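Input chain follows. Return C-alpha cells only.
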Amino acid sequence: MQSFLIYVVLPPSITTQPSSQSINVTQIARFICRASGYRILYQWRIGSGSFPSKVTGINTNTLVISDVRSSDENTYTCIASNEGGNASSRTVKLTVKGNVDPPTISRHPTNMTVKLENSTTMVSLRCEANGATSYNWERQSGSIPSRATWINTNTLTIINLQIKDAGYYRCVAINNNGQRYSKYCRIIINGRLAKDLLQEGEYLKSYYNILHSPYQYYSTSQHIS
C-alpha cells in the first residue's frame, strides 16, 4: 500500500491591521500590514486612481507615501496572498490636514513686443496661480528695473520703459507650502531682445534719447537681435 503526504497551504491571516491617518501636507504617511501564513506576498490597492511614482512599498507590508499632498487623500487596502488564497485588511483612509498644496500656475505671462513712443511707455505682465497667497517676479539676467511695481501682486508693471528693460521675466507664486515658477516670457523692445543691453565686447555709441532718436550703438561683435 502506498502512502501519500498531502500538504495543505492555508490562506494568510491578517494579524496587524493598518490604521487610518490624518497628517499635514509635506509629511510622510506609513501604512503597516502584517499577516501570518506560508510564503506570503503583499500588495496594496488604492481606492481610486493609481499610485503616484513617489509611493514606495506597494508590494511589501509597509506602504510609504512621501511629501503628502491633498491629491493623496484616498483609501488604501492591503492584500496578503499565497498559494492557498488571499486575505484583505480593513480599508483605511488617509486624510490630509489643511488640504493645501503649493500653488499651481494657471496662467503664464505672455511675450510682449513694444515700440517706444515716448517717456510714458509702459508694459504689464500678468500671472495667475491657484492657491497662491503672494507673488514675486524675477528677471533671468540682472535685476528688475526700479521703475517696476509688483510687490506681492500677480502683475508686473514697468513704467517709463527703456530699451535696457528688454529681456526674460517670470513669475513666482508662493504660499505656506511652497512655490511654483511660471515659464519665462520675453519683452522685446524696438525689435530687439536685449541681454542687459549688450553682450560682452559691445558698448554704447551714445546715450539713448527716448524722445528724439532711435537707439544707436555699435559693436566689435555681432549685435543682439
